[in-house]
Amino acid sequence: MRGIVFFVFMVSAIAIKAQPSDSLILFTGYVLDEDSVPVENALLVNYRTLKPKLTNEKGFFKMWVLKGDSLLINHISYERKIVKANNLASGLNKYCIIFSPYEIKTVNIKYRDIEMENFHKNMKLIVAEMRGNTPYYRTGTEYNSYAPPPKGQVAGINLVELYHIIKTSKYKKNK
């Protein structure tokens, strides 16, 4: 028993000694744009752990990292930036990212009527194919289980209909 206690003590002492207590730091700072306006919801991703953190409405972030970790600052409206973690005060960690909006290309509506006509033809073909390949809900009717029920009816099958289908299918198998 003493051997087990001694072994656990030695392993924990080695584990504590292996990682110095000062290597884990609280990395804080601000993400700002070129005009010193805080960037809200900028994403900081630690390359080592892949853990993300978002900035608040003041552009402030706070996360636990190892000193020297690389972090990616990413936002959809700004260029990406890579920074190194340090243990400076948050007022000294101000990172400026450059505004870079994505441009949406113009949409050409010249062929809209042709595309809509082709779309309607394809939809008619799909509906015809579904009607041809979908098993009927009731024998001898055009109603199937994938279509919405007609007015006054509910979707699905009741027990009487189910019993009738099972009974007739067994009867057909016996013949």
Description:
With 175 residues, this protein is α+β, with helices and mostly antiparallel strands. The chain has a domain at 22-96: Immunoglobulin-like (Sandwich), CATH 2.60.40. It has helices spanning 2-18, 112-133, 159-174, and strands at residues 24-32, 43-46, 52-54, 60-66, 70-75, 78-84, 94-96. The strands form two sheets. The protein has a four-stranded antiparallel beta sheet with strand order 3-2-5-6, with no helix packed on it. The model has no long low-confidence stretch (mean pLDDT 77).
- The termini sit apart by 77 Å
Q: Any low-confidence stretches, pLDDT <50, length ≥5? A: none
Measured by DSSP, the beta-strand proportion falls in: 15-25%
Strand order of the largest sheet: 3-2-5-6
Could you tell me the CATH topology label of the domain at 22-96. Answer: Immunoglobulin-like
Chain oligomer state:
single chain
**Biggest sheet details:** 4 strands, antiparallel
Mean pLDDT: 77
How would you describe the shape?
A: flat
User: What is the N-to-C succession of helices and strands?
Assistant: HEEEEEEEHH
Number of helices: 3
- Kindly state the number of beta strands: 7
What is the CATH architecture annotation of the domain at 22-96?
Sandwich
* Structural class assignment: alpha+beta
The CATH class name of the domain at 22-96 reads Mainly Beta
Rounded radius of gyration (Å) = 33 Å
Helix content: 25-40%
* The CATH homologous superfamily of the domain at 22-96: Carboxypeptidase-like, regulatory domain
